[in-house]
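Researcher: We're reviewing a set of sequences before deciding which ones to prioritize for further study. For each one, I'd like a predicted 3D structure that I can look through quickly. This is Molybdenum cofactor cytidylyltransferase. If possible, include the structure in token form so it fits the rest of the review sheet.
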Amino acid sequence: MSTVAGLVLAAGGGRRYGMPKALVEYGGSLLVERAVRTARAVCDPVLVVLGAQAVDVWRTADLDGATVLANRDWETGMASSLRTGLDGLRGWPGRVDAVLVTLVDMPGMTPEALRALAAHAAPDALAIATYGGVRGHPVLLGREHWAGVAASATGDEGARRYLAGADVTEVDCTGLADPTDLDVPPGGVPSAP
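Model: Here's the predicted structure for Molybdenum cofactor cytidylyltransferase, in token form for your review sheet.
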């Protein structure tokens, strides 16, 4: 059986939301707490990458034993958080075969969707959730791909460029999770870029 880590990307400043999404309360808990709990239900270890107001998140949130990694370059985009997380896993004691990458701003993510992708875990695996035929999160990255993903990740694209040129297993998660991300507060309007 493969060892699957969870990687929660939670470093962004939430410019359009008006605050770091890790600190947003949703359904009685912080978004970062929900994301960590969901990952913890399926993955071990779980790492969470913080950036904007990292100390406030760390002090406020119950991160349920997740390993916290600080991304000092969080303002450069999601790619720097992905690299921070993959770097943390490369130095992890014990073997991790694959990582499930999740985003903090998807409160509708479920352990069932993570399990569906984790079923494909292997060192050479690449898998992505689809919802109604549209690619989304989570993404499963086998260990053999971490260096390539890290090298090709730029800005807010994360692993998109690497995955576009690779043989990726699409896992239908329609009905298993809600892929909606929270870009603006409920009833709010996006702020000007």
